[in-house]
Design brief:
The complex is a heterotrimer of chains A (624), B (659) and C (68).
Chain A: H1 8-21, E1 25-30, H2 33-37, H3 40-53, E2 60-65, E3 77-80, E4 84-86, H4 94-103, E5 112-113, E6 120-121, H5 128-131, H6 149-154, H7 159-166, H8 169-179, H9 191-205, E7 210-215, H10 224-231, H11 233-247, E8 251-256, H12 261-276, E9 292-297, H13 307-314, E10 338-342, H14 343-355, H15 357-362, E11 364-366, E12 375-377, E13 379-386, E14 392-397, H16 402-409, E15 419-424, E16 430-433, H17 445-448, E17 457-462, H18 467-481, H19 487-504, H20 512-526, H21 530-534, H22 537-556, E18 570-572, H23 581-585, E19 591-592, E20 600-601, H24 611-615, E21 621-623
Chain B: E1 2-6, E2 9-13, H1 19-25, E3 49-53, E4 58-62, E5 73-75, H2 79-95, H3 100-108, H4 133-140, E6 148-150, E7 157-159, H5 174-178, H6 196-213, H7 220-223, H8 228-234, H9 256-262, E8 282-287, E9 297-301, H10 305-311, H11 320-333, H12 337-352, H13 371-383, H14 388-391, H15 395-405, H16 410-419, E10 422-423, E11 426-427, H17 437-444, H18 458-463, H19 470-490, H20 495-498, H21 515-529, H22 535-556, H23 576-581, H24 583-594, H25 603-629, H26 639-644, H27 650-657
Parallel strand pairs in B: 1-5
Antiparallel strand pairs in B: 1-2, 3-4, 3-5, 6-7, 8-9, 10-11
Chain C: E1 4-7, E2 10-13, H1 20-27, E3 34-38, E4 41-43, E5 58-63
Parallel strand pairs in C: 1-5
Antiparallel strand pairs in C: 1-2, 3-4, 3-5
Classes of the chains: A alpha/beta (624), B alpha+beta (659), C mainly beta (68).
Chain lengths: 624, 659, 68
């Protein structure tokens, strides 16, 4: 493969499109990590084998793609160009899929069934989950094979780079500023302003700056960045190239967490293919611009998502944050001006240059024409997980309300349960109750209510969730992830965990809530980095909105949601028909009773494993 | 200067001062675990937080590392600051309830019994409180990075790599000395000092002086001895083209800045790993341009001042790359750079004056400044062929060889004696002694030959004019050689003695002796051995060995007035050119010191007279020194002297009877 | 009669407004570690620019240099 010039991009695109058009249809097999672990690679292999055996491999192509976002329903397959959406595909479905494909029909049982109407919806665009999304960062998900650079180019990849190579540096920066885009990693700092600081500092000090992509994505339940890299690594590479051109960098790093092997593999393939084509390396697209990207694996530390800790890690030292100022844009990697942006931020950049800053600024909420701080422009990718019908990844314009996300797109709470709370922003964020569902999701609105949008993680909780237990979970996570350098974070998290643990075990004391509030206050004010400064948010927000639950645990020694084992008891109510299933399944023989008679649970023997509750078909087990 | 307000009090500070430093000027003290002058603020304990109003907002910051660069108002004890410190101390006290420092701070903020029970509570009084001082001291003061933090969060602890003992740790005890709780302590000290704490006190004093003041004094940590080049050049003491002159307009090319930019390493080099001065400097990846390793990238250990002055100015070569390459090959071949440089300088002057010619040098044009020829001689010396074999035998033998083999006139032979810079067969090290009678003695009287380790008196004599009389010079030539050779007896490096000085040294009576450090070394010896000595006994210890060595020299034929002779180039101008380069100074001396009438006299006439006077002066100096040292007229120690210092061993007396 | 001062027992010419810094320049003393006394009084470094030396003063400028 020869190194190309910018004029060649169009030829490659046309050639690829022409190649694809030869096929009658394409079977896009989702190969994001979620579907892969459900067996989608095997599906792909079987499909290819079957098509070959039937001599149909010249008519139908099989394309492994990145994550479609509908992860709980995986393995997913989409048949293009019609956009037929299949979910929960099994190997034995393959012959029928192909048969129906040839006939121009579909396999009903694999189609999506609407929750309200019960009707099958064959086409993806008609499914609310997909239809309501606006794809910018994820525009190529499910459409291209991420391991084939020609697919990406066919979809327009690297055209914006070619454009940027013709622009002068300040103009590129101004365009990004005008778009109003703010950091998608959670900090929400205006990206263009950050670039400008790094650019100006490099000019003043006559030094060469660096570009870094933060792909450490440590929030539990967040997988937006992973999906972007697995689905479309070239958009990230292109974004970094444009950023490098803008500020004058020649070296870039992608810091990717160790727990993302598939994303790393796809990224390295993409980098290698881009290098071969002359889209990375020296004299890119025949210009005098050079840029190289190296990948750097994390080693399992959440704190390395913090930019100064990340830089420390790249430099071979322990991932510990340092004092800011100076910010990395002024003095970062090896003491030089460094821009660190999140994967999703980079993924948006080529589109901004392609469609224009004004187009981007018009999407989202607020008015960024005077300042990016005045609004939240563009879209955001959210990972919707927890007690929700449609678990997965969505990209929607900023400003949409929590209610819309959870109910319209997410399909509401499954199993007939009620909504209790939604946790946003990962461990640095907080839990919001039903009264706040009309809040719009953007950089500023959630913060005012005591949570934050963060990097886009959204954990929905139903009424069987104990909020004290949730707080304890997050504090436990943060306690293990604290780097331990500064006193308030290290000791504060240890102390908070001790107290929460006691409370969930029925050993809560009067004054515990106030003590936790005091500790949290100190952590917020005195911690060295954002991890410590925001670590108490899960505790503070649950105390604020669910204080009564804390008080029940402490004063009454009860867990209203029925979660904290030491505080709950299992009993049989009058719905019991005496079917004896629970008594047979009980691992410790704690349930006794005759056939067709109401059973009894012996609290002394009961280990609260919840099996009886799960097997009872009559709602006869009560957990209180 | 910037005006700020702290707790309502106004103060003016320099830009870049920390809030904590500014507060201390106002005698406002707050708890801060990492607050030591010798290491950078760590900002980890967070006890030193304060509220700062910078005009935009009020925020809480750590005062230890907040650099003041604009007008601010600081609240060291606002309510929320106090509350925060109180909670932090409560957290710490719950984990380390018996550490005195924590208990004390906590009590000041009203915390006696914490409300939390810590799962990792450590009841020891010497618990490690994770303040980071030890780690930062090992890194910043001693440049070793042997200990560090491992583990995250509640697992954070101070360890050596992989929690095994790391041999690179030589037990310098810097970390143990800086630890505020005693969590680090020295265990097995193999040479078993009698009073470890007393030694630690002096050791830490030197370490702190080095860390805090070296960069404004000699910059030994930054650039090593190479800092001397431009000083010598400024004071006309840089040996140039075989000691003819003391400065050169191109000497800037050998400035320490030039080498500092090339240095890549600064670790101890065959000396003590725990040294804070770490003055040895090296250059990595230097590509050689000549010789058997041409083209290879090598590590060059140096250059030090002597190599720069010698292989540079003294050969008339002002190219730093030549100096670096000569340094490398001298090291590789096992050749001393001083002997090489001074020896070759002699050869070059001989060549320029017709004593040598191309036929004799194997076609090498050994003019001053000829880099290629100079490097070729070095390689010949290494290989053992060509003219290099002659040069490699040193000045004393070369003078003999040229006298015998080269068919020279008497004048030429005398000229060689005058310009061949060696004493007792050892080539001179790189300082111009022409105008300092005391230093001429320093070189000429030294036991091993022309080396300045015994005395370095040029500035005291020539510039400070502190030793004007013969008696003064003799006293200096007694005290300093005795003091300086004491380090050799003890196996100590002498550089910490006077390459860094305490801030209050100037206030002493005899600052050149660095009395504060002399006292330290007296303490060191006493604490090490358990034998109390004072500064006089210290000198005594040296005197015994020194005189013994002189007797030894005498036995070998190097220990009397005759062997203490020096070449005239080291005492005055040999040529007209040299005279005229300092004509004003010489004329003045002739007139003022000896009432010589210079009217109508030629340079040669003035030169000859000056020489006669100076040579007489040198002999008078020897008289004074021998007398002060208790030696006879011929410069040999008397038996009485040996008896006085308890060195009248039978073998010694036997030799002296023959004197 | 020329007005003079002693610098390290050397006579040099005195002039109006003769500060320590000026003397250092005249003598070409570029070395940093100096101990300076005027008529026995120790002069601190931050006074080198302001301390004026009167005629017949006895100035000692001691270089504390170690030598390599």
């Amino acid at each position: 493969m020869n190194r190309i010039q910018s004029g060649d991009l169009n030829n490659i695109r046309e050639k690829r499109v022409h190649e694809i058009k030869k096929f009658k249809a394409a079977l896009m097999v989702c190969a994001g990590t979620g579907c892969v672990s459900a067996g989608s690679f095997k599906l792909k292999d079987l499909l290819e084998k079957e098509l070959k055996e039937r001599n149909l491999d010249n008519e139908y192509m099989v394309v492994p793609t990145g994550c479609n976002g509908f992860c709980a329903q995986g393995p997913i397959m989409v048949i293009q160009p019609d956009g037929i959406f299949y979910q929960k595909v099994k190997p034995e479905d393959i012959p029928e899929i192909i048969n129906k494909l040839i006939e121009g029909k579909y396999v009903d049982k694999l189609l999506y069934k609407d929750i309200e109407t019960g009707n099958y919806i064959p086409k993806m665009e008609n499914i609310k989950f997909f239809g309501k999304q606006q794809l910018i960062a994820l525009r190529n998900k499910g459409i291209i094979n991420p391991e084939n650079i020609e697919d990406a180019i066919a979809r327009g990849a690297y055209n914006s780079l070619a454009k940027a190579l013709e622009m002068n540096q300040q103009d590129i920066i101004d365009e990004v500023k005008r778009s109003g885009i703010r950091g998608r990693g959670g900090g929400g700092f205006p990206t263009g302003v950050k670039w400008e600081i790094a650019f100006k500092t490099s000019q003043e000090k006559d030094v060469i700056p660096y570009i870094i992509c933060n792909a450490d994505e440590g929030d539990p339940g967040a997988f937006m960045d992973r999906s972007i890299v697995e689905a479309d690594p070239h958009t990230v590479i292109e974004g970094m190239l444009i950023g490098a051109k803008a500020i004058g960098a020649s070296e870039g790093f992608v810091y990717i967490r160790k727990e993302y092997p598939l994303a790393l593999e796809r990224l390295e393939i993409a980098i290698s293919q881009a290098e071969e084509m002359g889209l990375l390396g020296k004299n890119i697209l025949g210009s005098d611009f050079d840029f190289d990207i190296k990948t750097h694996r994390g080693a399992g530390a959440f704190v390395c998502g913090e930019e100064t800790a990340l830089i420390s890690s790249i430099q071979g030292k322990a991932g510990e944050p340092r004092q800011k100022p100076p910010v990395p844009a002024i003095s970062g990697l090896r003491g030089k001006p460094t821009i660190i942006n999140n994967v999703e931020t980079w993924a948006n950049i080529p589109v901004i240059l392609d469609k224009g800053a004004g187009w981007f600024a018009d999407i989202g909420s607020g008015d960024v024409s005077d300042s990016p701080w005045n609004g939240s422009s563009g879209t955001k990718v959210f990972s919707l997980v927890g007690n929700i019908e449609h678990t997965g990844l969505v990209e929607i314009p900023m400003g949409i309300t929590l209610h819309e996300i959870i109910y319209d797109i997410g399909g509401g709470i499954p199993n007939g349960r009620k909504f209790k709370a939604v946790q946003t922003g990962g461990p640095s964020g907080g839990c919001l109750p039903a009264s706040h569902l009309d809040l719009s999701v953007d950089f500023d609105s959630l913060t005012k209510a005591g949570s934050m949008m963060g990097s886009g993680g959204m954990i929905v909780m139903d009424d069987k969730t104990c909020m004290v237990d949730v707080a304890k979970y997050f504090i436990s996570f943060l306690k293990d992830e604290s780097c331990g350098k500064c006193t308030p974070c290290r000791e504060g998290l240890i102390a908070l965990y001790q107290i929460l643990d006691r409370i969930t075990k029925g050993e809560g004391k009067n004054g515990d809530i106030e003590l936790m509030e005091e500790i949290s206050q100190t952590m917020s004010l005195a911690s060295l980095c954002a991890l410590g400064q925001t670590a108490a948010n899960p505790v503070l927000s649950t105390i604020k909105y669910f204080r009564d639950e804390y008080e029940a645990h402490i004063k009454d020694k009860k867990c209203p949601a029925g979660v904290c084992k030491e505080l709950i008891s299992y009993s049989v109510n009058d719905n019991c028909t005496g079917c004896t299933i629970c008594s047979k399944k009980c691992p410790v023989n704690a349930i006794s009773g005759k056939v067709k008679e109401k059973h009894i649970i012996d609290p002394e023997l009961c280990i609260k494993c919840n099996v009886c509750y799960e097997v009872c078909k009559f709602d006869a087990i009560e957990v209180r | 200067m910037i005006n700020i307000i702290i707790d309502g009090k106004k103060i003016e500070v320099e830009k870049g001062t920390t809030i904590l430093e500014a507060a201390k000027k106002l005698n406002i003290i707050i708890p801060a675990l990492c607050d030591r002058e010798v290491v950078k603020a760590y900002g980890a304990c967070r006890l030193c937080v304060v509220d700062v109003n910078d005009g935009n907002e009020i925020k809480m910051v750590t005062s230890c590392n907040y650099l003041i660069n604009k007008e601010i108002e600081v609240f060291m004890q606002s309510e929320r600051v106090r509350k925060t410190r109180k909670m932090l101390l409560e957290m710490m006290l719950s984990r380390w309830p018996n550490v005195p420092m924590i208990k004390q701070f906590a009590a000041e903020y009203g915390v006696i019994k914490p409300r939390m029970i810590h799962p990792l509570v450590d009841y020891s009084e010497n618990a490690c409180i994770l303040c980071g001082l030890c780690v930062n001291a090992c890194s910043e003061m001693v440049w070793e990075d042997i200990i560090g933090f491992a583990g995250r969060g509640e697992n954070r602890r101070v360890v050596m790599p992989f929690e095994k003992h790391y041999e690179a740790c030589i037990g310098c005890s810097t970390c143990a000395n800086i630890c505020p709780t005693g969590a680090i302590y020295m265990t097995d000290i193999p040479n078993k000092p009698a009073d470890e704490k007393r030694i630690d006190k002096f050791g830490m004093k030197i370490t702190e002086e080095m860390t805090l003041m070296d960069d404004e004094q000699c910059d030994m940590r930054g650039v090593g001895t190479a800092h001397l080049t431009q000083i010598m050049n400024d004071y006309d003491l840089l040996p140039t083209t075989n000691y003819r002159f003391g400065s050169h307009k191109e000497a800037g090319k050998l400035h320490s800045d030039v080498f500092k930019a090339k240095f890549t390493q600064g670790l101890p080099d065959g000396c003590w790993l725990g040294c804070t001065m770490s003055c040895a400097k090296s250059i990595d990846n230097y590509e050689l341009k000549s010789g058997p390793y041409k083209g290879q990238k090598v590590l060059v250990d140096g250059p030090e001042y002597e190599t720069v002055a010698g292989c540079g100015a003294n050969l008339g070569i002002f190219n730093p790359e030549f100096v670096i390459e000569a340094n490398f090959y001298c090291d590789t071949y096992g050749i001393d750079t001083i002997s090489f440089a001074t020896g070759l300088a002699f050869v070059m002057e001989c060549f320029e004056n017709g004593i040598l010619d191309k036929e004799k040098t194997g076609d090498l044009e050994l003019n001053f400044g000829n880099e290629e020829a100079a490097m070729e001689i070095l390689h010949q010396m290494g290989r053992g062929d060509g003219f290099g074999i002659i040069v490699g035998q040193g000045i004393r033998r070369m003078k003999k060889i040229f006298t015998e083999k080269n068919d020279l006139t008497d004048e030429q032979i005398q000229f060689m004696q005058d310009i061949g810079m060696e004493a007792k067969g050892l080539e001179y090290s790189e300082y111009v002694t022409k105008e300092s009678l005391a230093m001429q003695g320093g070189y000429g009287l030294a036991l091993k030959g022309a080396q300045h380790d015994e005395a370095w008196l040029i500035f005291m004599d020539m510039v400070n004019n502190q030793i004007p009389t013969f008696a003064d010079k003799a006293e200096a030539l007694h005290y300093f050689p005795m003091f300086r050779t004491w380090f050799g007896l003890m196996g100590l490096c002498k550089l910490p003695w006077n390459d860094v000085e305490p801030a209050d040294n100037a206030e002493n009576d005899e600052p050149a002796k660095i009395p504060g450090h002399v006292e330290g070394y007296v303490n060191f010896f006493s604490a090490m051995t358990g034998k109390e000595i004072d500064k006089h006994e210290l000198i005594r210890q040296s005197e015994r060995v020194y005189n013994f060595q002189r007797v030894f020299n005498f036995r070998l034929g190097y220990g009397n007035r005759e062997s203490d002779r020096i070449p005239y180039r080291s005492a005055g101008p040999v040529t007209n050119e040299e005279y005229e380069s300092r004509a004003e100074r010489y004329d003045k001396q002739l007139i003022e010191k000896w009432n010589y009438d210079i009217e109508g006299k030629t340079s040669k006439e003035k030169r000859d007279f000056l020489r006669k006077m100076r040579e007489e002066d040198y002999q008078k100096l020897c008289d004074a020194v021998y007398n002060r040292r208790g030696w006879d007229d011929n410069g040999v120690p008397t038996i009485e002297k040996m008896r006085e210092i308890g060195m009248d061993l039978p073998e010694v007396v036997e030799v002296l009877k023959r004197a | 009669m020329k007005k003079q001062i002693l610098v390290n027992d050397n006579l040099i010419e005195w002039q109006e407004n003769l500060t320590i810094n000026k003397i250092l320049k005249i003598m070409n003393y570029s070395f940093k570690m100096l101990v300076i006394k005027v008529d026995g009084e120790l002069i601190k470094k931050d006074e080198y620019g302001t301390k004026i030396v009167s005629e017949n003063a006895d100035v000692k400028i001691i270089h504390l240099i170690s030598g390599g």
